[in-house]
Specification:
single chain, alpha+beta, nine-stranded antiparallel beta sheet
Length: about 280
């Protein structure tokens, strides 16, 4: 490697007298500090090397002491938390009983969704107001009677590795006679697959602000559904977390969850009112 001492533009006399500039590590002048030495030794005014006489901005941090802990409230002084209706119905409780156990106790049947009678559930999933894919299928299918309705309750599941994951819970009631194509959803929900559907006003401002009914046709049947006092009262008393639709001769309710006993009973109450409103004109 060439240096200033080589004969590539410097003569011997100039090269022998050349010194590297002080800021690059050459010999410092007598009255000039050697910055390289400063990096290796403590500052002159801090012989301990702790650097207490000078620190960069932000160098000092607060002492690492745990925050003060407020005194504990004696258990007797804590008022008991009383869960509301929404928390009792929709709060996750670990499915202590289990939807299948509940179904057996109530005389319902259980299938895995692959039987011939389960083929119609594929049509329900494809028409659902959620964006389901071909990977979604019906699982943990429960059939039985709820009040005056024959019902089928199942999870919309998909495979994730070796596990089957429930993403939605569906409860559906097969109905006799013609069922208009409709969607009944919370107004705050994003709408999917609503092409060709018309909004049907309920005539109740409070209900219309929270819920939206869409139908393929504006008929007396769907208007009865929109204006039915029982349907409105039940839906206004919920957390606006369910959606309803009709397909394949069924009226169905769906919620993003896996099924559990309280959710089946909740859907049963709502579907009973919806089916009754649709059947009022038969």
């Amino acid at each position: 490697m060439s240096t200033p001492r080589d004969r590539d533009g410097f003569d011997d006399e100039a090269g022998s007298s050349w010194q590297e500039p002080a800021h690059l590590g050459g010999e410092p002048e007598a009255d000039e500090p050697n910055f390289a030495d400063r990096r290796r030794q403590p500052r002159d005014d801090d012989a301990t090397g702790t650097g207490d006489s000078w620190r960069p901005a932000g160098w000092d941090l607060p002492p690492a002491e745990p925050p003060a802990v407020p005194p504990a409230v004696p258990p007797a002084a804590r008022p008991p938390a009383v869960p509301g209706t929404t928390e009792r119905v929709f709060g996750y409780e670990g499915d202590l009983v289990g939807a299948q156990g509940w179904a057996l106790q109530h005389g319902w049947t259980i299938s895995d969704g692959s039987g011939p009678e389960d083929a119609v559930l594929r049509e329900l999933i494809d028409a659902a107001p959620v964006r389901a894919t071909k990977d979604h299928r019906a699982g943990s299918v429960l059939r039985g009677r709820g009040g005056n309705l024959e019902l089928v309750a199942f999870d919309v599941v998909y495979a994730s590795g070796r596990h089957v994951v429930p993403e939605y819970a569906v409860t559906a009631a097969p109905v006799l006679g013609a069922v208009p194509r409709f969607r009944l959803s919370p107004a705050r929900f994003w709408k999917h697959g609503t092409a060709g559907l018309l909004p049907i006003a309920a005539g109740n401002d409070v209900f219309d602000r929270r819920w939206l009914l869409l139908a393929a046709e504006d008929t007396p049947q769907v208007r009865r559904l929109a204006g039915d006092p029982a349907v409105q009262g039940l839906l206004l008393g919920t957390d606006d977390g369910d959606e309803f639709w009709s397909a394949a001769g069924h009226v169905a309710a769906i919620r993003p969850d896996g099924h559990r006993p309280q959710l089946i009973e909740h859907h049963t109450r709502l579907l009973t009112a919806v089916v009754a409103a649709l059947a009022a004109g038969y």
